[in-house]
Amino acid sequence: MKRFIGFIKKEFYHIFRDKRSMFILFGMPIAQIMLFGFAITNEINNVKIAILDKSNDTETQQIIQKISRSSYFDIEQEIKSESQIESVFKKGKVKAVLVFEKDFIKNLQTLKNGKVQVITDATDPNMANTISNYISSILQNYIQEKNKNIQPSYQIQTQTQLFYNPAMKSVFTFVPGVMTVILMLVSAMMTSISITREKELGTMEILLVSPLKPIQVIIGKVFPYIFLSIINAAIILLLGYFVFEMPIEGSLLLLALETVLFIICALTLGILISTLADSQQTAMMISLFGLMLPVILLSGFIFPISSMPLPLQIISNIIPAKWFIIIIKAIMLKGASFSIIWKETLILIGMTFLYTGLSIKKYKIRLE
Questions:
Q1: Domain that holds residue 127
Q2: Which of 167, 246, 323, 325 could form a disulfide with 344 if both were Cys (CB 3.0 to 4.6 A apart)?
């Protein structure tokens, strides 16, 4: 029995000394519960909206103030005409536009009925529906407070209009999201094991003594996977277009170029992982567990980033998938041009150069 107890103690010591085992046992569950706990929510917070106030009277101003005082919405801007609505949506920040009819206060006082139109960006149908419900709830709460001393009571009629996805098809969200997740994980995973495979097979020495420069080795490792990932992307787009009737409103050339840019960014991230990992198993674990949860939860694919706590919103900025989802939705659903998505494109280009530079630096270190 003493030998058995001694054996168990030895196993405990081995586990506690292995940092990777401790991370899997305690670090990953803590990280997962924190991510799931804060990221997965059906509530909305700080959603940016625009106001088109055709009446511009005391009543509409009071309603606008009540909406802005809530934690659910931030008034991003006030627009002057309906012709500005689509351009505001294409920029991507504003998720809804609140339109007050002309002579709102007059209609409310004489006809006892005022009309408010809620126009939402339905590229994310669940969020669009939630925004409409929240605004309707605030309006109803306002009118109930107003009716305490008024007989007969006032009513506010809410009209909803959906931009880009009037049928509320969830596939319009999932095709771009799934495409992003697949390209990110497959590209990063495949390249993450490329250099570590050389080490395990014993062929790393050939690369070390070859006249190839580090940048040439990295490009050589990435190049074949670019074509394979492009085929993946083409298959997903074709299935989305012909099977699920996913529209492509923008330029096909722009969509193709942006997709290739994201693929290269994901591949260079995989190369960076491969230069950091000592084995294929470690590289695979980092690619799967280090990328899968952040890509799914913090990219805006399923859950709105604006509703997350500020620290997670900041962390989401370093997730390449976040920026590609914004780009692909803007092109496919909104017909956006490069002038709308230039900032997100520059961010992906910057990330690509950063990952490439770090990979070269780490590769040089291993040469010494």
A1: 47-163
A2: 323
